[in-house]
């Protein structure tokens, strides 16, 4: 029995979600291969050192842009010796894994948060309000793993061998043009230890700047509810929730967020939750460890000043 983990690379190193996926893979087998869809030597050397990885498979060919149409056949070819194919349940995994599973005529199991045995897995349903235990009889199992449910694997201590992998070829039907990414000096949202999030209660895009001083003092990432994103207060890559990013920081500060079930699904695993809202009946207070009822435009400047 062996596990193939598909690595998500951010240009310099593997993503934190991939490290969590490696930890999940260790609960299935001690034989773990990491498929790297990046030609960088530095990335490959970093992958060799990940504790728990026994082989690093370096794919070649047209990998630019991570197009699922080009990469999925590569993964299908690499899957020949594996019984389980794992990827993190982020945008990368959600883009690639359904296509790979379909090409292999198998079913995908999404958002796995617990591995009971090699055939049985637990995943959240109904926006995280219930957990479903799923048993798969497929010969090869395709899983996306919720990164917040598993500790990240150590990035030192491994000594995996690097093997040449399959060649990616363009299908001629789609072409990578460019990627526009928002740049910030703050931590990446899904990897941050502290997250400061704003909701519709912030009132406007201009008012969202009130969170900046607090986030800077705490060394925190900035997030947002879907209501704030839909209202145009902040770009959608800041969205936390069922249809956004799932986070589990040590400290999550929800400001002007009522606590809709879809938002809670993306942050309720945070270690400590602090809620600031003028509505004392807001649902967010039901899961908050600490709650402060009041005007956020008075509380946040005062809090920032005292830090």
Q: Which residues form runs of ≥5 with pLDDT under 50?
A: none
Given this structure, which CATH class of the largest domain is correct?
Alpha Beta
Strand order of the largest sheet: 5-9-4-1-2-3-10
Task: Profile the largest sheet.
Answer: 7 strands, parallel
Q: What sort of overall outline do the alpha carbons produce when their principal axes are compared? A: globular
SSE string, helices as H and strands as E? EHEHEHEHEEEEEEEHEHEHEEH
CATH architecture classification name of the largest domain: 3-Layer(aba) Sandwich
Helix content: 10-25%
SS elements, strand count:
15
Please identify which CATH superfamily of the largest domain we are dealing with. Answer: HUPs
Please work out how many helical segments DSSP would assign.
8
- The proportion of residues in beta strands is 25-35%
The number of domains: 2
Which fold name is given in CATH as the topology of the largest domain?
Answer: Rossmann fold
Distance between the termini: 52 Å
Average residue pLDDT: 90
Class by alpha and beta content:
alpha/beta
Rg, please? 21 Å
Which terms summarize this structure?
seven-stranded parallel beta sheet; 2 domains; 8 helices; Rossmann fold; alpha/beta; five-stranded parallel beta sheet; 307 residues; 25% strand
Report on the structure:
This protein is of the alpha/beta class. It has two domains: 3-168, Rossmann fold; 189-306, TPP-binding domain (Rossmann fold, 3-Layer(aba) Sandwich), CATH 3.40.50.1220. It has helices spanning 16-26, 41-48, 68-78, 91-103, 210-218, 226-230, 261-264, 296-306; strands at residues 3-7, 32-36, 55-61, 84-88, 108-112, 114-115, 120-125, 130-135, 141-145, 161-168, 194-198, 221-224, 251-255, 272-277, 290-293. The strands form three sheets. The protein has a seven-stranded parallel beta sheet with strand order 5-9-4-1-2-3-10, with helices on both faces. A five-stranded parallel beta sheet has the order 12-11-13-14-15. Helix 1 (16-26) links the parallel strand 1 (3-7) and strand 2. The chain is globular, with a radius of gyration of 21 Å. The chain starts with a strand and ends with a helix.
């Amino acid at each position: 029995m062996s596990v193939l983990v598909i690595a998500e690379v951010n240009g310099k190193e593997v993503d934190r979600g991939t490290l969590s996926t490696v930890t999940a893979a260790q609960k299935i087998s001690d034989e773990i291969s990491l498929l790297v869809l990046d030609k960088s030597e530095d990335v490959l050397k970093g992958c060799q050192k990940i504790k728990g990885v026994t082989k690093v498979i370096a794919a070649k060919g047209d990998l630019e842009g991570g197009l699922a149409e080009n990469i999925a056949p590569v993964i299908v070819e690499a899957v020949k010796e594996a019984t389980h194919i794992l990827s993190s349940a982020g945008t990368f995994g959600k883009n690639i894994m359904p296509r790979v599973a379909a090409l292999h005529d198998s079913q995908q199991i999404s958002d796995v948060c617990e591995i009971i045995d090699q055939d049985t897995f637990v995943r959240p349903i109904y926006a995280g309000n219930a957990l479903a235990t799923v048993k798969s009889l497929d010969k090869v199992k395709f899983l996306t793993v919720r990164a917040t449910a598993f500790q990240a694997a150590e990035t030192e201590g491994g000594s995996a061998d690097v093997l040449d992998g399959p060649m990616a070829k363009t299908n001629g039907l789609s072409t990578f043009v460019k990627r526009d990414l928002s740049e910030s000096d703050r931590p990446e949202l899904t990897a941050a230890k502290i997250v400061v999030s704003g909701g519709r209660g912030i009132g406007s895009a201009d008012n969202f700047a009130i969170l900046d001083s607090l986030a800077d003092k705490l060394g925190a990432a900035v997030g947002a509810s879907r209501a704030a994103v839909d209202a145009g207060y902040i770009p959608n890559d800041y969205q936390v929730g069922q249809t956004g990013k799932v986070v589990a920081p040590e400290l999550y500060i929800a400001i002007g967020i009522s606590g809709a079930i879809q938002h809670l699904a993306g942050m309720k695993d945070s270690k400590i939750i602090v809620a600031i809202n003028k509505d004392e009946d807001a649902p967010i207070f039901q899961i908050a460890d600490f709650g402060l009822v009041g005007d956020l435009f008075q509380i946040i400047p005062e809090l920032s000043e005292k830090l």
